[in-house]
Write a structure and sequence with these properties.
This protein is mostly helical. It has 16 helices and seven strands.
Length: about 400
């Protein structure tokens, strides 16, 4: 399968579907620089994601296109996906997850590519609606937030992949009594819908809104669950359209809302009994947490959401800090070692909360200790491992 460029147009290929339904080969190629016009917005966005566009381009405009992706054979695709499903086997270790996530980033596999394999292995059976919904959610995740530096399709794919790894690892732990319960194939599909779709609609801003005070001055105020509600509404709309049960939609809504680092984390902590001293904040959106399986899936999602930047390597932490700075319009190193220490402490409370997430606890502890060393030495405080190309990996 090749990318045909003829007469200045993408020649009859729906890029998003052509890769998936063709011979399984993603390209790069050694195509020369060429001019092409794309009139279809969806096709343009898919090409834009996988190629370097040398000048600002919009729908219908002619632009320079240089294909930068490398060729990935069907055998390579299968190998990368086998790593994903290896988390359910006794040969899988927490140490392998960082390498797997890095490999999937390089592979060019989209959320939808991965969803297709998940559905092939774990559905449809009596879960056809959830399988269809997962594919549709991933289609949308692949085009959501493409202008964001951090909350973009790559982040959705990373979180979805990590969630599925942890969910399969949980089932292995449950077999030995190290986790309270195993997740059924149906629940794996349901949780994957929440994981891949948890940031759909993200606009690149924080959970803030503009409010006018009594003095007539506009100020930014926190708007709890603003972004999480956008994502939950969209994913639940897809579930409803695909015929998912109301209880499934309620479960997914609770899972996605629980990723809000203040109100959502607080609600899940209460449900898990982690902070029994915290005052309850009842809300009907979290009623689904009365189901132990929903609590477990939400706990895994919280860990998966923060693990790319907190549970793998310190260089990952620095990399994502720089991306978030760009997304929020902050100066470089605004989210440096001091803010990293705050993140590890005040946000994560130095712990993962799900049974499979706790496999990474020693790694999180080590990364926090390394960051505190960096923070204590003024010569290291401005060190950005992403810009140096070096890394510090904590063994688990």
């Amino acid at each position: 399968m090749t990318l045909a460029l003829a007469n200045g147009h993408v020649d009859g290929i729906d890029y998003a579907h052509g890769i998936r339904n063709g011979d399984g080969v993603r390209y790069a190629g050694s195509l020369p620089d060429c001019k092409c016009t794309v009139d279809d917005e969806r096709t343009f966005r898919q090409i834009e994601r996988l190629a370097f566009v040398s000048q600002t381009a919009t729908k219908g405009r002619t632009f320079q296109l240089r294909v930068m992706q490398y060729r990935l054979s069907r055998m390579d695709v299968n190998r990368e996906l086998e790593f994903l499903f290896a988390a359910g086997s006794c040969s899988w270790t927490a140490h392998r997850l960082a390498g797997q996530v890095a490999a999937l980033r390089q592979s060019g596999l989209s959320c939808r590519d991965i969803a297709g394999e998940i559905v092939h292995r774990f559905g449809p059976g009596d879960a056809r609606a959830l399988g269809d919904a997962l594919c549709d959610v991933c289609e949308e995740a692949d085009t959501s937030g493409i202008s964001n530096a951090f909350h973009n399709p790559d982040h959705s794919r990373d979180v979805g992949v990590i969630w599925f790894n942890l969910a399969l690892a949980n089932n292995r732990l449950a077999a030995t009594g190290s986790s309270p319960s195993s997740l059924t194939p149906r629940e794996l599909l349901l949780g994957a819908c929440a994981a891949f779709g948890h940031d759909i609609g993200h606009d690149g801003r924080a959970n803030v809104a503009t409010a006018v005070g009594d003095d007539g001055v506009e100020r930014s105020v926190r708007a709890p669950f603003r972004l999480e509600t956008l994502a939950a509404d969209r994913v639940c709309d897809i579930l409803h359209r695909c015929g998912a049960a109301p209880s499934d939609r309620a479960a997914v809504r609770a899972m996605i809302l629980s990723t809000d680092i203040e109100g959502g984390h607080h609600a899940l902590d209460l449900a898990l009994g982690i902070r029994p001293d915290a005052p309850p904040q009842p809300t009907p959106h979290f009623a689904a947490f009365s189901d132990p399986s929903v609590r477990l899936m939400a706990a895994i999602l919280r860990d998966a959401d923060i693990m790319p930047s907190a549970g793998l390597t310190l260089r990952d932490c620095d990399r994502y800090s720089r991306l978030i700075e760009r997304e929020l319009g902050l100066a470089p190193m605004s989210l440096g070692p001091t803010q990293t220490e705050t993140f590890f402490g005040a946000v994560l409370h130095r712990r993962f909360v799900s049974p499979p997430g706790q496999l990474f606890q020693s790694r999180l502890d080590a990364l926090g200790a390394i960051n505190r060393i960096r923070l204590a030495d003024k010569d290291l405080q401005d060190l950005d491992l992403e810009s140096t190309g070096r890394d510090v990996v904590a063994s688990s």
